[in-house]
Specification:
164 residues; alpha/beta; Rossmann fold; 6-stranded mixed sheet; 33% helix; globular; binds flavin mononucleotide
C-alpha cells in the first residue's frame, strides 16, 4: 500500500486521465479509475442531456469498483471532469460513499473554460476533510489532450502535492 491514493473519473476526451498520467510518473500512489456500471451511450449531445438530467436530480450512478477503501492513506487525490458546472455523477457517488473526517484531500477538475462550482461542491461533500489543495485545468473542448492551462502550472501543482 502506498501512502497516497488517487481516485479519478475520465470520460469523453481523457483529459482528466492526462493529468493522472502526469501524476503517476511523480507519485508513488495507488491509482483507481472509477467508471459507471451503466456506460453513457450515444453522441455527445445525448450524453450531455443525460448528464444534465442526472445532475439536476443529484443522481448517484452505481460505480465500479464500489469497494474503495480510503483508510490508511496519508493523502488522497480526487479528479473529475466538470459536468454542468459540477463534478461528474460517478465522482458524486464515490465521494458520497466515504467518510472523509480527518483525511487529507486534494481535489482537481478539468474543464473547457467554465469551471462553475465543481471544486466548491466537492469540498462541501468531503465533510471533515483537510482539503490541502484544489486546482482546475482547462482543456480545449474539441481536441484530445490539448491543455490550455500552461504545463508549468501543472508541474508546480504536482510539486505542491508532493511536498504536503
Ligand atoms: C456532459 C458534459 C458536461 C460538461 N460540462 C462542462 C461545464 O459545465 N463546464 C466546462 O468548462 N466544461 C464542461 N464540459 C467539458 C469537460 O469538462 C472537459 O472536456 C473535461 O476536460 C473532460 O474530461 P475527460 O476527458 O477526462 O472526461 C462538459 C463535458 C461533458 C461531456
Amino acid at each position: 500500500m502506498s501512502d497516497m491514493l488517487i481516485v479519478y473519473y475520465s470520460q469523453i476526451q481523457g483529459n482528466t486521465k492526462y493529468i493522472i498520467d502526469k501524476c503517476e510518473k511523480e507519485f508513488n500512489a495507488d491509482i483507481i479509475r472509477i467508471d459507471t456500471v451503466e456506460p453513457y451511450e450515444g453522441n455527445i449531445d445525448e450524453i450531455s442531456a443525460q448528464a444534465e438530467h442526472e445532475i439536476f436530480l443529484d443522481f448517484k450512478p452505481e460505480i465500479i469498483p464500489n469497494d474503495i477503501k480510503i483508510d490508511g492513506y496519508k493523502k488522497i487525490l480526487i479528479g473529475t471532469p466538470t459536468w454542468w458546472y459540477t463534478m461528474a455523477p460517478a465522482v458524486l457517488t464515490f465521494i458520497s460513499s466515504q467518510n472523509w473526517a480527518g483525511k487529507n484531500v486534494a481535489l482537481f477538475a478539468t474543464d473547457a473554460g467554465c469551471p462553475g462550482h465543481c471544486i466548491e461542491d466537492m469540498i462541501k461533500l468531503c465533510k471533515g476533510a483537510n482539503i490541502f489543495s484544489t486546482r482546475t485545468f482547462e482543456f480545449n473542448l474539441h481536441g484530445t489532450n490539448y491543455m490550455i492551462t500552461p504545463e508549468k502550472d501543472l508541474k508546480a501543482w504536482i510539486k505542491e502535492i508532493k511536498s504536503f
